[in-house]
Design goal:
It is built from ten helices and 13 strands. It is an alpha+beta fold. The strands form three sheets. Strands 6-5-4-7-8 form a five-stranded mixed β-sheet, sandwiched between helices. A hairpin with a 6-residue loop joins strand 1 and strand 2. Helix 8 packs across helix 9. The protein starts with a strand and ends with a strand. Bound molecules: zinc ion.
């Protein structure tokens, strides 16, 4: 290695296999090896070695630099200064259709739950460990707060909506005025329409062949999947964890600024105060979860090696996967490097 550059050559004929260039304190490998792409964005990206711009870009699900600055400007708690603009992120190129952020139309709602948008995405072809294939999103037009539910099949849509209805109305202490959906069968069944009628919820559906009228929900699904792909590529996380990535993305997305609500975060609009992001870490990072006292033995390890899969919505804790014992763990006592 010399002058920040490294060359890997075959011992047999000295032909060049891979070239490494030092970028922002880590070595980035470029080459023709079958494993080259893994090297380029995986093994070097432990949190402690990342430059802060790339670190926060990764923590926020590969959020664009301008939005990260907006968060800082708006006083989000725990966000460190981001010193410079990112040149390029491999995981973004691999995971997103486009690096451009879209401009969302401003919300026309005047109160929480006056209007919610909903969309059911096409099936995901990698089964999750418990068989989920679909994601169904709900977005409040006024606050842009988003909720996501995972479904095993389309027939669960009606029950899912009922669960969501109870959950968000209790949270907001307010009633849903209207729901806007496309004309998918999951939203137009008699039982669904009867339920809406009984609860005084108006149903706005898109004109056939004009699904763009439900663009807010469709764009949200696209954005979620773009972020999911980037986050999984970035840390080379196994595809079976896509459900955890989806839940993590929505948690993060609710803490990202949206131009539809004048660059505030949905969290702030919904809860009335600016979120703290001190606890956020890069999805897929290696970490160590403390073993509870009752499971410890005198000479055994004090913690389990895990990977971060997200954040609990019901307590201040991390959702982890213990790769040694092959089990999901929720823990508050976690050490990251
Ligand atoms: Zn990125």
């Amino acid at each position: 290695m010399f002058d920040g550059k490294l060359e890997v050559r075959k011992s047999s004929d000295h032909s060049l296999v891979m070239r490494g260039i030092e970028e922002e304190r880590f070595l980035k490998l470029h080459g023709t090896s079958a494993h080259a792409q893994h090297f380029s964005y995986n093994s070097h990206y432990e949190e402690g070695t990342l430059p802060s711009s790339l670190l926060w870009h990764a923590i926020f699900g590969h959020l664009n630099y301008d939005s990260l600055h907006l968060l800082k400007k708006n006083g989000v708690v725990g966000l460190l200064t981001i010193p410079r603009k990112l040149k390029q992120c491999d995981a973004c190129i691999l995971g997103k259709h486009s690096k451009q952020s879209f401009h969302d139309s401003h919300s026309r709602a005047h109160r929480k739950l006056e209007l919610i948008y909903s969309n059911l995405c096409d099936p995901i072809h990698v089964p999750s460990p418990n068989g989920n294939k679909y994601m169904m999103t709900f977005i409040d037009a006024y606050t842009r707060m988003c909720w996501v539910y995972l479904l095993k099949n389309k027939f669960d849509s009606f029950q899912t909506f009922k669960n969501c209805h109870t959950w968000i109305e209790n949270g907001a202490q307010s009633h849903i005025g209207s729901i806007r959906t496309d004309n998918g069968k999951e939203y137009t069944s008699n039982e669904f329409e009867n339920y809406l009628h009984q609860h005084g919820i108006k149903h706005q559906t898109t004109v056939p062949y004009n699904p763009q009228q439900n663009d807010v929900a469709k764009r949200m699904n696209r954005t979620i999947l773009n972020m999911v792909r980037s986050m999984m590529f970035f840390k080379n996380v196994k595809l079976i964890f896509w459900v955890d990535a989806v839940l993590c993305v929505v948690y993060i997305k609710n803490r990202c600024p949206s131009n539809a609500i004048r660059n505030k975060t949905p969290y702030e609009m919904w809860y009335g105060h600016i979120p703290s992001v001190k606890h956020l870490r890069v999805f897929g990072s290696t970490c160590y979860a403390l073993i509870p006292k009752v499971h410890k033995n005198k000479l055994g390890a004090r913690s389990h090696k895990c990977i971060l899969l997200g954040y609990s919505n019901i307590s201040k804790a991390y959702c982890l996967y213990d790769e040694v014992n092959k089990k999901f763990v929720v823990s508050r006592d976690v050490i990251f490097f």
